[in-house]
Amino acid sequence: MFSRYSFDITTMVRDVNFIELRFQSAVLYAAQQSEAHTGYQVPPNCPPLVQKGECHVNFIRKEQCSFSWDWGPSFPTQGIWKDVRIEAYNICHLNYFTFSPIYDNSAQEWNIEIESSFDVVSSKPVGGQVVVAIPKLQTQQTYSIELQPGERIVELLVKINKNISVENWWPHGHGNQAGYNMTVLFKLDEDLNIEKSAKVYFRTVELIEEPIEGSSGLSFYFKINGFPIFLKGSNWIPADSFQDRVTSDLLRLLLQSAVDANMNALRVWGGGIYEQDEFYELCDQLGIMIWQDFMFACALYPTDRSFMDSVSAEVAYQIRRLKSHPSIIIWSGNNENEAALMTNWYDIPPSDYPMYINDYVMLYVKNIREVVLAGDSTRPFITSSPTNGVESIAEGWVSHNPYDTHFGDVHYYSYSSDCWNWKLFPKARFVSEYGYQSWPSFNTLEKVSSKADWSFRSKFSLHRQHHARGNTEMLYQADLHFKLPQSTDPLHAFRDTIYLTQVTQAQCVKIETEFYRRSRSEIVNGEGHTMGALYWQLNDVWQAPSWSSLEYGGKWKMLHYFAQHFFAALLPVGFEDHDVFYVYGVSDLHSECRVTLTVRVHTWSSLEPLCSHVTGHFVINSGEAILIYKEPVPSLLRRCWNCTRQSCVVSFYLSADSKPLGPTNYHFLSSPKEAVGLQKAHITALISQQGDTFAFDLETSAVAPFVWLDVGSIPGRFSDNGFLMTEKTRTILFYPWEPTSKSKLEQSFHVTSLTNIY
Description:
Elements: H1 26-36, E1 67-69, E2 72-74, E3 92-104, E4 109-120, E5 126-134, E6 139-147, E7 150-159, E8 180-188, E9 192-200, E10 205-208, E11 221-224, E12 227-229, E13 231-236, H2 248-260, E14 265-268, H3 277-286, E15 289-293, H4 305-322, E16 328-332, H5 337-342, H6 353-375, E17 381-382, H7 390-394, E18 410-412, E19 431-434, H8 442-446, H9 459-464, H10 470-481, H11 490-518, E20 523-524, E21 527-528, E22 532-535, H12 558-566, E23 570-577, E24 580-587, E25 593-603, E26 611-614, E27 618-620, E28 625-632, H13 633-639, E29 648-656, E30 659-668, E31 683-690, E32 693-700, E33 704-710, E34 716-718, E35 723-725, E36 729-736, H14 742-748, E37 750-752
Parallel strand pairs: 13-14, 13-22, 14-15, 15-16, 16-17, 18-19
Antiparallel strand pairs: 1-2, 3-4, 4-7, 5-6, 5-8, 8-9, 10-11, 11-12, 20-21, 23-24, 24-28, 25-26, 25-27, 25-29, 29-30, 31-32, 32-36, 33-35, 33-37, 34-36
């Protein structure tokens, strides 16, 4: 599935031609390949029963999750999924064209390495010139070439005019995504002209793994154009179970939604596909950094000659196709396979370990890594995620503890512990997977279900849940801090439960992400300097419960609205430790920031804040997370008219020159289910049109936590949602994704807050 094939049909072409393709079942082929591998088992044989999937997907180079995953169905596709064409030529043909901008540190100048492959079918050499032009950089260079018959590669080095200032490509939130139009014209004998045009972007990337003062181990962070950048984002899975349904509009919607939530990075996960060209072009334009896995996930793999040859061809092709994209900042060999091997997911006997480790090194190091290094010298390569980076290399490419918080990246999941307890999270260098499940909205589910399905324990709800005990775990986590829905009406209870799973997921991921962001500048007990938080997962392949923040089709869950805030460039983060309330100021800005912090205490029973405290001025430096406020909770409560933990909630925000900067954050002093004085809020909305957007003027009768605005199936998003409403009025904007009207919005509008589900 991941390679491009070319067949010479010269001797077969007739006046009228038919192409007949005969496909073998992918499921049967995978089973036969496994059966033929008689020497030893290559686990896992089959996915867990709850996934309702097919077996032996590791024996076929197809989208690994198409045989099922813990968030998706088993729809193993069949057929050709890219364009098919006949190419005719009698002199020569350009097979491929690829390039890499490279910064020469010693000369302090940019060069572009261009590689072109030709199939020369002429019986004599083909001569000519190559003209490379980048008008905006006042760069034009001409080269003479002579192509001998056969397969020929032409390599050119283009030096960029040193007198012209080159504008760098930056990730979203850090600068512009500047790019330049380049044309490459091959003017060859017999008036054969071949022209290629491309967008060239200039940026450097470094993966920094070096000692940290006060900590054993090594750092693990990225520098773009020499500037350390905290990666904020999520993990990307295929946008649909059937790729022919993935339109340009859908890709743009999903990727724009990532940027709109202040993300600057996505990890293209290794159980899906190498995405289509347009995906990477959009990421280049939007400033989304891509951590690109190779397509191997949660399995061991065979290393027989035919499989290895297939992988070599796949990797070489994908490197050529993708390496010119500035958005891709790292290649990673696989998803979780080092961890699967070294923490023994598959109960491998100790005596067999050397054989499986040897296979692992053969595939990811001696094969994939070698092909990557030969094809691309401009970005880092790691063998796995999670991995300990250079420490894994030192231990023979597999580390005894791939989840070591002192090296590399980690993945972290825990569904049985309390997600509000930040002390459980790994204070790691980089966290590339973490998350919690929720259900998508009723409107999304309604399209693929009927009335009999609309309960949390229906056959439908169990069938669509592919994660063992997933529905039970969601309710367990919700019950720790919230009252479970109490309606006796089954449909009402189902809708309320969906809402509560989204509240719980959003709050869990918020608390965890804020912990990672405030850990970027400190070392505590030898751990810290966290420089990346990519939650699992961004999007969905179908309508089902999953870890996503965007539903199938692109509707924002509550988590995605929360991400807008917890990924903000400037953010106050509040937490408690030993009965003391702390606030950190976190900055991703490129310059220092002089601000004040306002801390307000609200009572659940009143829309007027009880008390407010403004700090003096302090400076948050560029790329820093620092402590800016601390106060024992008992003294905070005494200061505010003898509040109690159960009767009050804290909000806080940063300001410069008396103007709020960034989002207002909040901190619960107790679980909302213990709240005293919380009343049922009656919330109304007056809708008005303002150009292409709509304003929702909200008014509430009481303090309302987790206010959720919904307009059913009308495509679009709100400027904010799932928020804590502590003031009587608030205006929220709605951005429609296709034309709609005030009357349609009024008919579809529904508002929920926490007390509505009791």
